[in-house]
Design brief:
This protein is mainly alpha-helical and 93 residues long. The chain has one domain. It has 4 helices and no strands. α1 packs across α4. The longest helix is centred in the last third of the chain and has 27 residues.
Length: 93
């Protein structure tokens, strides 16, 4: 994977999370189904009741237009490329 592709994936993940956060929701759905079926709870449990909150704000990304999202991704890609370039330059000195 090229450094550019890696930076693009990081930028995309900052706007549309995948990985652990997505896995948390999958587990929460299964746990809610198991709890609701078990008879151990008096009221139905929802998956949202079982997922710990993530501290990063998502409202801004949800209210963006596609053009704004594309621009945000491009800014993040450029930021990551600059960071990677600085790391590469440091290692070559």
């Amino acid at each position: 994977m090229s450094m550019r592709e890696f930076a693009e994936w990081i930028a995309y993940n900052r706007l549309e999370p995948f990985g652990d956060e997505r896995a948390d929701w999958r587990v929460a759905h299964a746990a809610a189904a198991a709890l609701n079926r078990s008879g151990l709870v008096s009221q139905a449990v929802q998956p949202k009741d079982l997922v710990l909150p993530i501290t990063r704000p998502k409202d801004a990304a949800l209210s963006m237009t596609q053009e704004e999202r594309d621009a945000a991704i491009l800014r993040e890609v450029n930021r990551m490329k600059a960071m990677c370039g600085a790391i590469g330059q440091r290692g070559s000195s």
